Amino acid sequence: MTIQVGENVPACTMKVMGDQGPTDITTDELFAGKKVVLFAVPGAFTPGCSMTHLPGYVVNADKIKVAGVDSIVCMAVNDAFVMDAWGKAQNAEEIIMLADGNGEFTTALGLELDGTGFGLGHRSQRFAMIVEDGKVSHLNVEPGPGVDVSSAETMMALL
């Protein structure tokens, strides 16, 4: 079942790239006491994700943070090495590149995508949410291909 507005994000541990390599980060560390915009993509380096979704957040990061957001998080069911390389390739210095390598958080949110028909395995649906102190205040899931309801511009209008 998909997480709903008003619910707390499930407890989970994922990875980010640290100075010494992949480092654990918990949902509590990401969300407790913070206002966070998290957006998820089906895969790093894929066309829509690289040409539209992540770049929208990169160019609007300052505006989003001025609106009271503590962190912007980009999540994919990829490993920390891929997320780190993708973030560097996209100049995403202001964005936490979150690796949900096994898809555990994605599954706990109920937002998994079966991409096996395309040779992609199990991934995340494209979505964005605003989380305030661990509780979802907005959730926008793309109904199909493209970047619309989960874009940086759409989420900025909700802040």
TrEMBL record:
Gene3D superfamilies: Glutaredoxin. InterPro entries: PRX5-like, Redoxin, Thioredoxin-like_sf, Thioredoxin_domain. SUPFAM superfamilies: Thioredoxin-like. One of its GO terms (biological process) is cell redox homeostasis. Residues 3-159 form the Thioredoxin domain. Its EC number is 1.11.1.27. GO terms for molecular function: thioredoxin peroxidase activity. One of its GO terms (cellular component) is cytoplasm. The active site is at C49. Pfam families: Redoxin (PF08534). Belongs to the peroxiredoxin family. Prx5 subfamily. Thiol-specific peroxidase that catalyzes the reduction of hydrogen peroxide and organic hydroperoxides to water and alcohols, respectively. Plays a role in cell protection against oxidative stress by detoxifying peroxides. This is Glutathione-dependent peroxiredoxin. It comes from Parahalioglobus pacificus.
